[in-house]
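Subject: design request, 253 residues
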């Protein structure tokens, strides 16, 4: 099993707040080193709120609570209500899967983080696949047109790319042989990360477009700004924590 892409020791961390942090190759996209790097003795669950992550948590909760309350406060339908419930739950879990892994730096933390990341993604995947099955069954039973809205197009594209991304990650992790061996497979992690961030943007765009469907506006009475604010908070919480070194960008050279 390829558990971590690097056996190099992590770069030195700034240990006190008083020390001015020296920029290193592990500097996050925004902010200073240490803002979003898990300290060697820190518990893994703190990664979920470390640095700017708490902003993402606010956004993720806003999207989840807005959707679930809108569904349960309005007319329920067996072949429609589970779709927004499951898709917003899947999105919430997907955000947690990213946040838990982002700040890991030591090989041991990366290994544990990868297991939690994969488990959260499995739950997220089951949620997405069930929600998409519900909406496609709805369309089939009621003879409704596919690709009826921007959300429909984005939903199909995002669902398909998510599936490819899961297969890519599982392949590198569990069967590196298909990529020519463990070393070659490990070198592909950075593309999985690029794919992951691109997919997060696509998932959020799909959610944003969902607010503009006739059902969301007419039945669920979702206010577009609540989804807009939730999406913005997720973005400003996740992207400043991107570790450039993990994307293969070494700014120390
Ligand atoms: C990442 C999250 C989501 C994904 C991947 C997703 C995916 C999809 C897919 C694949 C379809 C069917 C498209 C077709 O066959 O043409 C669809 C339709 C639909 N979704 Fe979502 N969805 C998501 C979130 C949501 C949310 C949060 C809501 C409501 C608040 C929602 C409401 C709807 C509605 C009303 C339709 C039918 C309208 C249409 O197809 O134009 N979806 N979605």
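Subject: RE: design request

Done. Sequence follows.
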């Amino acid at each position: 099993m390829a558990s971590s892409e690097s056996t190099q020791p992590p770069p030195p961390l700034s240990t006190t707040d008083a020390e001015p942090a020296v920029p290193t190759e592990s500097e996050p996209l925004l902010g200073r080193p240490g803002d979003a790097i898990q300290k060697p003795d820190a518990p893994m669950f703190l990664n979920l709120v470390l640095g700017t992550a708490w902003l993402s948590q606010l956004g993720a909760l806003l999207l989840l609570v807005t959707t679930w309350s809108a569904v349960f406060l309005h007319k329920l339908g067996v072949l429609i209500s589970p779709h927004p419930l499951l898709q917003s739950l899947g999105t919430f879990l997907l955000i947690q899967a990213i946040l838990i892994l982002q700040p890991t730096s030591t090989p041991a933390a990366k290994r544990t983080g990868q297991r939690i990341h994969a488990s959260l993604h499995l739950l997220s995947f089951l949620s997405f696949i069930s929600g998409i099955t519900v909406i496609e069954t709805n369309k089939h039973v009621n003879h409704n047109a596919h690709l009826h809205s921007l959300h429909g197009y984005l939903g199909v594209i995002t669902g398909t790319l998510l599936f490819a991304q899961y297969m890519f990650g599982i392949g590198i992790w569990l069967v590196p042989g298909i990529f020519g061996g463990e070393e070659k497979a490990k070198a592909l992690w950075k593309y999985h990360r690029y794919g992951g961030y691109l997919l997060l943007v696509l998932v959020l765009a799909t959610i944003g477009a969902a607010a503009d469907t006739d059902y969301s506006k007419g039945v669920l009475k979702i206010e577009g700004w609540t989804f807009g604010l939730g999406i913005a908070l997720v973005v400003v919480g996740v992207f400043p924590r991107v570790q450039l070194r993990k994307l293969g960008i070494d700014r120390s050279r």
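The chain has one domain: 44-247.
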